[in-house]
Amino acid sequence: MKSRIFMYLFIFSVLLTIFLYVNSKSILDKYEVDIKKYKVIMAEQEKAIATLEEENFDLNYFNIDRNDNALDYFVEQGYDTDKLILAIKEGLYNMNNYEGDDHPIVPFVSMTDSKILINKVRILNHKWIAANFTDGVHWGEIFVTYDIDENNDLKYKLVEYFMYPRFN
Question: Longest Cα pair distance anywhere in the chain, in angstroms?
Answer without folding.
Answer: 111
